[in-house]
Amino acid sequence: MTVQAGGRGRGDIFGRRFLRLYGKVNYFHPMSDAQTLILRAELGGVSAGGRNGIPDDFLFSRRR
User: Fold this and answer.
1) How many CB atoms lie within 10 A of CB 58?
2) Domain presence at residue 54
């Protein structure tokens, strides 16, 4: 299991205040000696008033 959190607590002239959360979990279930079922789930999001002023490294790609 992986959990990450990051952000900026105060908005200033360099950027916007935001919070980023991300989590990932992997599950391995042996089906037989030769087969294993692997499940993975990822979830993440950014809470902010908009995208401007947030470094690209902290944003997730947007589907259109």
Assistant:
1) 16
2) yes
pLDDT tens-digit readout, 5-54: 988 887 666 677 899 999 999 999 999 999 999 999 999 999 988 888 88
Residue 49 lies in a domain: yes
| Enclosing domain of residue 44 | 2-58
13: nearest Cα among 58, 53, 57:
53
Res 20: pLDDT: 93
Q: Does residue 12 fall inside a structural domain?
A: yes
At residue 46, the 3 state secondary structure works out as strand
Query: Residue 57: which of 10, 9, 4, 13 has the closest Cα?
Result: 4
Domains in the chain, number = 1
